[in-house]
Design goal:
Elements: E1 2-6, H1 9-19, E2 24-25, E3 32-33, E4 38-43, E5 49-53, H2 54-59
Antiparallel strand pairs: 1-4, 2-3, 4-5
Length: 64
């Protein structure tokens, strides 16, 4: 399962609180995801989410 959305202040703070972290990093480029960024959240087999910038997610695939 995956979700695409714009990172809001409310969602950002909730993710930080759940992860007990000080920032959220994109799984591909390792840059910080900020409020207002277009984000894709991908559910892993372990029941946790991995977060990607939407542009980074699209760059993972090769169009044929």
């Amino acid at each position: 399962m995956q979700r695409t959305y714009i990172m809001s202040d409310r969602i950002y703070k909730r993710i930080l609180r759940q992860r007990k972290a000080d920032k959220i990093l994109c799984e591909r480029c390792k840059r910080e995801i900020k409020i207002g960024d277009k984000v894709l959240a991908k559910l892993t087999s372990g029941g946790k989410f991995k977060y990607y910038h939407l542009d980074c997610w699209h760059k993972l695939f090769i169009e044929i």
